[in-house]
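pls read this stuff:
=====
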Amino acid sequence: MSYTECKKNKINEYLKKFEKGKLLNKKKNPIKNHKQALAISLSVANKECIKNITNDDIIILEKKIDKLFYNKNKLSVSIVKDIIIILKYYKKNKKYKKYKKLRIDLIIRVLNDVINDNVNKYLIKEVLNYIHRESVSY
């Protein structure tokens, strides 16, 4: 099963749990907010499905990033997470030119958004965590 298929299945599984009132938070209380349920399902899907990523999935993510990242749309945490997935793929597969370009583009874009006061703290946290993990791995 590909990353995309796995992710769709996990999201559907968790949203069905939410609809039945069986999706619980850390305190074992049912989740009542649909946005929170969606955030949880996306987080779990990303973590559990990353091992299934294929070249076709990378192509899909690259197209998504070309459309949403380079066209100056508002930067979202979801796009940043997709970029990080692609960066890890590029590094693992020794596509260093693409890796360096996308990494620099991400940093510049986030810094520009910070200057323009147009970025949320979760997005900055994701980028900083990635940069920190990368610097520790060298």
About this structure: The chain has a mean pLDDT of 89. The radius of gyration is 16 Å. Residues 90 and 97 are 9 Å apart (CA to CA).
